Amino acid sequence: MKLLVTGAAGFIGFHTARCLLERGDEVVGIDNLNAYYDPALKQARLERLKQHQGFRFVKMDIADRDGMATLFLQEKFQRVVHLAAQAGVRYSIEDPHAYVHSNIVGFLQVIEGCRRTQVEHLVYASTSSVYGANTKMPFLETQGVDHPLTLYAATKRSNELMAHSYSSLYQLPTTGLRFFTVYGPWGRPDMALFLFTKNILAGLPIDVFNDGYHQRDFTYVDDIVRGVVAAVDHVARPDPAWDSDHPTPSTGNAPFRIYNIGNQTPVPLLRYIEVLEQSLGVKAEKNMLPMQLGDLPDTWADVEALARDVGYRPCTDLETGVKHFVEWYLDYYRPQFSRVDPS
């Protein structure tokens, strides 16, 4: 197939594009290479994608209305994997305008391009953050998600609603995937595992919020990518059992689906740190702090719907996943200050 992958220089976008290329698909990747985090890391990911004959890169902001319209008309994509976004829960408190620009205006340009060029299937990234004030665990796609705790979550929930309207109005098949705390090699420098590793190796304390009482459904990136690609291949269809008198928010009488995609195994944050310490061979000095504004205390994905429909099952345990990240980090950054025992 010929696919567009937005955010191809990002963490999940890079891994997804590489997986599609390795199975023989043609991929056009788009990214604006902004400086939210080190653009050199994004460039390094791109260099690896460019080693594949079937890959082409376009530097563009997805909110560029004319540029995106032209790209869709010229390329005639069969399917689209939309992973570009302004990410980061906490940064949305600092710069809300960036989130509306990328996650609302940008999403509109992507879904409009899909509509106008009859794309077969749009798969897009949502987030576990949409569950917001919900505390009933595990999180189910059938739960209401009308109480977001951050603008980031609100923009992602808006994407889900926009997708339903386009699926309903234009019969555009759309599938939203609610990612649960993705980690692994080539990860984002603003995420916990990356920050913890960097500080531990430098002999600096790590900030542990909520005194370490968080639980997260940490999901290894390879497991996520397998689910994304399987979802791309499984074109959304109307749910024949959908009942307008008792509507469920994750399906509809339009070709529309929303799925959780996670590890289905919540892990306490302190255990996550312990596994990292074991992989590094170094104990962390912890700076215990209260819970940050907008954080969810716990996340836990029920992934039975995705398992039923596309066969998704996570298979990477935490110890293996963290070990792979540490190996990549040490190889990529080769920190001179590393106190890791080489044995």
Concise overview:
The model is unreliable at 337-343 (pLDDT under 50). By secondary structure, the chain is α/β, with parallel strands linked by helices. The protein has helices at 11-22, 39-49, 65-75, 91-94, 96-116, 151-170, 192-201, 221-233, 269-280, 304-310, 318-333, and strands at residues 2-6, 26-31, 55-59, 79-82, 121-127, 174-179, 182-183, 206-208, 215-216, 219-220, 256-261, 267-268, 286-288.
Describe the structure.
The chain has 343 residues and is α/β, with parallel strands linked by helices. The protein has helices at 11-22, 39-49, 65-75, 91-94, 96-116, 151-170, 192-201, 221-233, 269-280, 304-310, 318-333; strands spanning 2-6, 26-31, 55-59, 79-82, 121-127, 174-179, 182-183, 206-208, 215-216, 219-220, 256-261, 267-268, 286-288. Helices cover 40% and strands 15% of the residues. The strands form four sheets. A seven-stranded parallel sheet has the order 3-2-1-4-5-6-11, with helices on both faces. Helix 1 packs parallel to helix 2 and helix 1 (11-22) crosses helix 8. The longest helix is centred in the N-terminal third of the chain and has 21 residues, at 96-116. The model is unreliable at 337-343 (pLDDT under 50).
